[in-house]
User: What shape does this take?
Amino acid sequence: MVANDHAVIEFYGWWRTDFGWDGCNFKASLDGGQTWEIVTPEGGYTIDAMFTGSQNPLSGEPAWTDVSSGWEHIEIPLDDYIGEAPMFKFHFGSSDWAQGNPGFYLDDVIMWGLTTPVYATVSGNVSFDGGNGTITAVDVSANGHGSPNTHPAANGSYTISNVLTGQRTVTASLAGYHPASQPVTVVQGGNTGVNFTLTRLDPPPPTNVAGSVNSASGLMTLTWTAAADPLVDVYTIYRRIAGDPDFVQQGTSTGTTFQQTLTADGIYQYVVTATDNNVNVPVTSIRSNQATVLYGELPVTQLGADGNYDDRIHLSWLTPASSKELNCSMTMVQPNSSTLWPSLPVLQTISVCA
Assistant: This one.
């Protein structure tokens, strides 16, 4: 374990590599080797970033590269890891073997300012806020050397062993719940009462929302497929008129249908959310897909005309609440009497195609 701010690793290094393409750096891990971070030596590396676009695993990282000045004495401060028991490694990377350089060598490695790691236990209780999870499936873990973890007993109690003393973060997690973490100063005698409450995630939204309306009575019926969550208690229905910025709540339903009577012509847009109320703070899904309902006599939109023809005019428009364009071909003829020439053409036929 790194004991004080004078902790350092020192060694002699010798290297001959292809500049910028091959090199070596020094890294530390606090999670048992799952992830690594670069540690900078006194005076820095010989290049701030290895050349990118190659197969070198150090691409884009600082490194010792090119040719050293014989055996160079190098010191790397470790004071950023006081109270930790990191893993260290020298990481060499090469883009290819074409240059035939001998690579990177090190000798006389010494580490100062270390002490024997001290481990302790952390215990507490895990509980749920909503959801239907299994308490014994919860993973409770602590960061630091070895990343120790455990699972609670059926009553929610847990104890993690072999937790490195010092500043740690303890986390409880389970699929379907928001993970919970808290910082803990782990002391040699161990810590108790590190408790967690996991709150269930928001439920998924209902799907396949669709609406229809009786054109005579104005009775609108909205249907949907229930959210894929058996704990959903209620669905909330929202509506807006096309062009309005905000949806307004219209009502709720414990089933998968909703009805209301429309009284004004318009383009109505509906969305539905799902809510589980059996949580201290109820959790609600995102909005469902949008269902559009047309009611009454609605004008077409984006009417356009093209008269660049001898005998016809092309009209085009969009049907209400649709991006589908309809086209109308109007065939025109001139009057037979030359005394009326030139006069406006007379509409003879109209044909419409989708």
User: Anything to note?
Assistant: The first strand starts at residue 8 and ends at 16. Residues 301-353 form one domain. The radius of gyration is 36 Å. Residues 337-341, 346-354 have pLDDT under 50 and may be disordered.
